[in-house]
Amino acid sequence: MATIELNDVNMIYGTGSAQVQVLHEVGFAADAGSLNLIVGPSNSGKSTFLTIAGGLLTPTSGTVLIDGTPYQARSAKQRGACGHFFGPPFC
């Protein structure tokens, strides 16, 4: 079982004719300690993907699993165990 999994994740911003689908049925899995790169051109949804994977944004549809448990079903204490770092890119 992967440490983090995204299954059929979709993210749609806006409504009606202004609707934009940023992510379309995205699937991803990563094991603890693995190195994974998220690459793509500008405006391809990388930041949205990472924000959803980190639990800071709820997808329009699909599931995010942490150790096999849906992120939203985790207790506040368990959700607090997920860390986030916001800072400038490094080289």
What is the number of domains? 1
Tell me what the CATH architecture is: 3-Layer(aba) Sandwich
Q: CATH homologous superfamily name?
A: P-loop containing nucleotide triphosphate hydrolases
What distance lies between the first and last C-alpha atoms, to the nearest angstrom?
A: 32 Å
How many strands in all?
A: 4
Going across the major beta sheet, what is the strand order? Answer: 2-1-3-4
Global morphology: globular
Keywords: ATP-binding, Nucleotide-binding, Transport
Protein name: ATP-binding cassette domain-containing protein
GO molecular function, one term: ATP binding
Domain ABC transporter: 23-78
Explain this structure.
With 91 residues, this protein is of the alpha+beta class. The protein has one domain: 3-Layer(aba) Sandwich (Rossmann fold). The protein has two helices and four strands. Strand 3 and strand 4 form a beta hairpin. The longest helix has 8 residues. The radius of gyration is 14 Å and the shape is globular. It starts with a strand and ends in an 11-residue tail after the last helix.
Characteristic terms for this protein:
globular; single chain; four-stranded antiparallel beta sheet; 32% strand; 91 residues; alpha+beta; Rossmann fold
Topology at a glance:
Elements: E1 4-13, E2 20-30, H1 46-53, E3 61-66, E4 69-70, H2 76-80
Antiparallel strand pairs: 1-2, 1-3, 3-4
In short:
This protein has 91 residues and is an alpha+beta fold. It contains 2 helices and 4 strands, in the order E-E-H-E-E-H. The mean pLDDT is 85.
